[in-house]
Design a protein that fits this description.
20% helix; elongated; six-stranded mixed beta sheet; single chain; 18 strands
Length: 430
């Protein structure tokens, strides 16, 4: 069974509590404190497994928890760290926070391992609190609490070329003829209820990955039928082969079908319909020459001015298929070979009060600049891609949410003043 969406709950380990104890040995009746520190809680880690191609395992197991750190012991014994939990995922899985739907990470490209939640720090034992005036502290620090998240996992197939078009136009037949994939083929709507992937081998070491995206219908972008279940799989493809029934065997109009599918693509994601396309006019083997000329003339007159190539093909006989694939490969070579990776929009370490690291805000008289620094700031900058619009928006929200903007204003910052953070300089504007 194929599954491309799942909902799960994850929890990191709680930090172990620090221990309260005192050294008690023969001839040392009043020894000092010797309570050990608590162990660190385990992390929750996602890791790509190349052998997986479905999220079916998450239908059976929905809760994942790392181990808690152990409490510290006597004689300065540190508690054992909690065990990390490593959750295996297929490549191409996008992880979202359930409530907001925002992306936490995309397990594709170079992202093969990701720590989504860190375990709580262990608490300090009472040995750390002895002073000249308090030589027998009877308290220790509790371990940091566990962190938890409810997540949505979405598997979006990774293919170079996506086959799109209405049901029953011959996409599965095309895939089976051109690749090593063997999809189930039958003459009824929605026979394909999962994306099928295949490798097109053109010889001379030339190849690309082709995905048969299940048949779309009007209203798919609004969730009609299995709209969203299908549409998520075309987001990564660099090129579309738009298959239409040129023969109109079900009374369909090829031009109207292309317009309807492109409208659904654009409604689902802005700019998706503008991605490079090739029109594959299928089922030409059942047309006589006059009928073929008529339909091809109408397609050429519409799409040639847009720079979209139209190929008459027959997925059954193989006519025109080789020429189409060669052109598709050339298009891929001419387009930017940049994988579609979804940017991070949700940062677990800085949501829900997770970030407890300190920071400072000050004014440097010599540099005439405001300086914001500290572990929390350094960690945030490490997480954030400030060159992207989403990343910079998160950066601004972080400054506001953590009260940093208020502290800058309290120090008297004015529009145009410089704010410096770890080698980065910004002009402040309210």
């Amino acid at each position: 069974m194929f599954a491309d969406r799942a909902k799960i709950y994850v929890r990191s380990g709680k930090g172990g509590d620090g221990h309260v104890s005192f050294r008690r040995e023969k001839y040392v009746p009043d020894g000092g404190p010797d309570g050990g520190d608590g162990g660190r809680g385990g992390d929750v880690i996602f890791e790509v497994d190349e052998g997986l191609n479905t999220l079916i395992d998450f239908r059976h197991t929905r809760k994942y928890a790392a181990g808690d750190g152990e409490e510290g012991g006597k004689k300065n014994c540190r508690g054992k760290d909690g065990a990390d939990i490593v959750i295996k995922l297929p490549k191409g899985t996008v992880i979202r926070e359930e409530t907001t739907g925002r992306v936490i990470t995309d397990m594709s490209g170079s992202q093969l391992r990701y720590t989504i939640l860190t375990g709580g720090r262990g608490g300090c034992g009472n040995q750390h609190y002895a002073t000249s005036t308090m030589q027998a502290p009877k308290y220790a620090q509790p371990g940091q609490p566990a962190k938890e998240l409810s997540l949505i996992l979405e598997l979006k197939v990774i293919a170079d070329v996506g086959l799109i078009g209405f049901p029953n136009v011959g996409k599965s037949t095309f895939l089976s003829r051109t690749t090593n994939a063997r999809p189930k083929i039958a003459n009824y709507h929605f026979t394909t209820l999962r994306p099928n992937l295949g490798v097109v081998d053109l010889g001379d070491g030339s190849s690309f990955v082709l995905a048969d995206i299940p048949g779309l219908i009007e209203g798919a972008s609004e969730g009609v039928g299995l709209g969203h279940e299908f549409l998520r799989h075309i987001e990564r493809t660099r090129l579309f082969i738009h298959v239409v029934d040129a023969a109109g065997t079900e009374g369909r109009d090829p031009l109207a079908d292309i317009d309807a599918i492109n409208a659904e693509l654009e409604a689902y994601q802005e700019g998706l319909s503008s991605r490079p396309q090739i029109i594959a006019a299928n089922k030409t083997d059942v047309l006589d020459q006059d009928a073929l000329d008529e339909v091809m003339n109408s397609l050429h007159s519409r799409f040639d001015p847009q720079g979209i190539q139209v190929f008459p093909i027959s997925a059954v006989t193989g006519k025109g298929v080789k020429e189409l694939l060669s052109y598709a490969y050339q298009c891929l070579k001419d387009t930017k070979d940049t994988p579609v990776v979804f940017e991070q929009e949700y940062f677990p370490e800085f949501e829900n009060g997770y970030a407890e690291d300190p920071y400072t805000v000050s004014f440097d008289e010599k540099e005439q600049a405001y300086v914001v620094e500290g572990p929390r700031i350094e960690k945030m900058l490490g997480y954030t891609n400030l060159e992207s619009e989403k990343g910079f928006r998160f950066f601004q929200e972080f400054l506001k949410k953590n009260g940093i903007l208020k502290e800058l204003e309290a120090l008297g910052i004015q529009d145009g003043d410089t704010v410096r953070m770890y080698g980065l300089a910004f002009d402040y504007y309210k």
